[in-house]
């Protein structure tokens, strides 16, 4: 962002602290942080340099302040305008805002009059961020950054859009319901697939949010229990992802905290009456890992306690997927290595490198995924490719490039993403 100029003629930078949602006002000349501002929308601001004023939105209001003066002196110019994605001043002297809701707002500084115009903006494709085979036989998808959902019907070939929720990181099915982990602020929703999607009327219904947690990439239905388990990544600048359970009969969302200190949870699987969790050493963005390698832990859902903790692949930064394998053991991938874990012995009994992974420079929250196919082979995505692992010999075969995420329907067809596109891979019987 370009520097902004106050009435004193000095340049300042506005910097957003994502962990606390505070905006710092930094004086370039003195090198000092002069003040902190709460609630400023930092997607767009406009600086009237001649007047030494900055226009911005906060809590749906258009505001103006002098960056050389205390933020408490900011003027509220108009309310109910929304969140600005862009702000500028027109040749007519009016302030123009384009909001995140697709509304063009015009503010006249002369008389304080506000005009609003809803724009008919054609929808644009966005990257797919989550894929799930739903209880309705459709392939459900969540969109990246802009949020929203869509469901593809393999029978009719039609896709239906379902707006109303933010970015979904993961989904899981329990019965006829779809549970959704929503970013930001660690929120959870449940959708009753036997009723129409209507987010405004409570379907999906919000279950709650977990304080200090940002997103959930790991979800698990616990068969035979009135229970769904979520593994979480913490908020920006924090370490330690919580293990969260939801009891539908009690309508109770419970956080059990970071069961592995300084690590977050990237994958979950059920094995021998225990929930196995695979961790990542990464926390939220903006903080370095404190741990050196990811672990597997066993969680007793009856007693709500951790039974054990082991390192499946020495030096691996994350265990991004685990499934029940064709031999009855747990199969997982960590650091590009396939490992087979015997839950009874609580040890890795076999491993094989599938592909190389680059050194960790920022974070790893998810990576490889796998499903057990009815043929007895394991199919997966990872390292930007679709692959097959022979269920008996463990031979590794690359099937397609550019693939990530994965879901399998009742007929054994595989669905994966290529950026903004949903692809299907059909396995001949």
UniProtKB/TrEMBL annotation:
Source taxon at top rank: Bacteria
In this entry, which stretches build a coiled coil?
none
Cite the InterPro entries for this sequence. Quinoprotein_ADH-like_sf, Vgb, WD40/YVTN_repeat-like_dom_sf
Write the protein's name.
Answer: Two component regulator propeller
């Amino acid at each position: 962002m370009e520097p902004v100029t106050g009435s004193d003629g000095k340049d300042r930078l506005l910097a957003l602290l994502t962990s606390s949602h505070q905006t710092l006002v930094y004086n370039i000349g003195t090198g000092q942080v002069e003040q902190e501002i709460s609630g400023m929308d930092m997607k767009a601001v406009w600086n009237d340099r001649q007047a030494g004023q900055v226009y911005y939105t906060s809590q749906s209001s258009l505001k103006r302040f002098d960056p050389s003066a205390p933020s408490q002196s900011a003027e509220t110019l108009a309310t109910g305008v929304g969140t600005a994605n862009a702000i500028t001043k027109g040749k007519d002297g009016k302030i123009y805002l384009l909001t995140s809701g697709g509304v063009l707002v015009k503010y006249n500084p002369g008389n304080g009059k506000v005009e609003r115009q809803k724009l008919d903006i054609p929808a644009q494709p966005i990257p797919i961020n989550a894929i799930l085979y739903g209880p309705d036989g459709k392939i459900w998808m969540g969109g990246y950054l802009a949020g929203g959902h869509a469901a593809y019907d393999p029978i009719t070939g039609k896709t239906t859009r379902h707006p109303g929720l933010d970015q979904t990181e993961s989904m899981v099915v329990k019965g006829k319901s779809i549970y959704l982990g929503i970013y930001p602020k660690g929120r959870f929703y449940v959708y009753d697939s036997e009723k129409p999607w209507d987010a405004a009327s409570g379907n999906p219904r919000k279950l709650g949010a977990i304080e200090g947690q940002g997103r959930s990439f790991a979800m698990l239905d616990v068969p035979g229990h009135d229970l769904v388990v979520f593994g979480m990544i913490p908020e920006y600048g924090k370490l330690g992802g919580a293990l969260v359970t939801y009891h539908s009969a009690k309508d109770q969302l419970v956080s059990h905290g970071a069961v592995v200190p300084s690590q977050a949870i990237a994958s979950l699987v059920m094995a021998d009456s225990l929930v196995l969790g695979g961790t990542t050493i990464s926390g939220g963005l903006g903080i370095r890992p404190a741990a050196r390698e990811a672990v597997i832990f066993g969680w007793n859902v009856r007693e709500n306690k951790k039974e054990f903790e082991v390192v499946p692949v020495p030096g691996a930064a994350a265990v991004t997927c685990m499934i029940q394998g064709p031999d009855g053991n747990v199969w997982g991938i960590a650091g590009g290595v396939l490992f087979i874990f015997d839950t009874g012995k609580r040890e890795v009994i076999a491993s094989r490198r599938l592909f190389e992974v680059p050194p960790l420079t920022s974070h790893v929250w998810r990576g490889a995924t796998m499903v057990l196919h009815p043929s007895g082979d394991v199919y997966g995505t990872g390292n930007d490719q679709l692959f097959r692992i022979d269920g008996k010999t463990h031979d590794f075969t690359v099937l397609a490039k550019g693939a990530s995420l994965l879901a399998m329907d009742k007929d054994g067809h595989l669905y994966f993403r290529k950026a903004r596109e949903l692809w299907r891979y059909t396995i001949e019987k």
